[in-house]
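Section 3.1: Structural characterization of target chains.
Under the original work plan, the team committed to producing a structural model for every single-chain target entering the pipeline before any wet-lab resources were allocated. The record below documents one such target. The sequence was received from the expression subgroup and is listed exactly as submitted; it comprises 297 residues.
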Amino acid sequence: MLIIEAGQQHMRLDVLLRSIYKHTSREYFQHLIDGGLVLVNGALTKKSYKPDIGDEVELQFVVTEELPLLPENIPLDILFEDEHMIAVNKPAGLVVHPAFGNWTGTLVNALLYHCQSLEKHDAIRPGIVHRLDKDTSGVIIAAKSLSMHQALCRLFASRKIEKTYVAICLGKPKACTITAPIGRHPVYRKQMTVLGSDGKEAITHVQPMHTNGKLSFVRIALETGRTHQIRVHMKHIGHHILGDQVYGIPSHNEHYGVSRQLLHADQLAFVHPFTNESLVIKAPLPADIEQFVFDAP
């Protein structure tokens, strides 16, 4: 999502998008607008529309000859694989799917190389069922076929996939369930925040596992999957995720020398839609989190 800032207003929408994304033609954005893939404040618009300051522009990018999506030989840490799906341990720093600024070197590029039969039912996110932030590590699954993609989406939507994370947070939180609704921040539009009755339902269960009084290693289970849910909820209860550059505390991040949120998708548990096998797919702790679990300063 783009938020129109001072100096960007009163330009034709297609011209404005071309000025922001300089590596792509104006004709490409005209194609997106004509195809209903660009919304301004949630509504369809025309190429000639001139956004004003504060307008929200949402784009759905598609692959064209101008923007090809290519397989890349990027190593994958595979946790589970069969003919229907693959689960990998995503390292921190790896983007899940292509977008402007990251058209190559993504998990999708790696999956297209590894899974030669991956069905491209989504032009930009083939196989992707759920997402992890770029700087969140851990388990992520992808479908190899449209039928498996649909089946996994149904499991996520019906909350039949148990999602468990671990994290290093500030302070010493108590075991709790956070039920604060989440929505987009009214001022900082690229961020999410707790909004009370105006937000969407968000449920997070927090269980402390280890602490030295200043930092804690916590296990977090999600019932819902709102954008940035864990990071927003931990900030809300005053126990920010260490290293979080958006919702964390900069002075603490600097003190401990951490530049990414120490948040890890620890495991996914669900029943395989086609084999009925009960799966628990777990990713080992990355070194930057492990050092605080066993050697917290």
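The longest strand covers residues 162-170.
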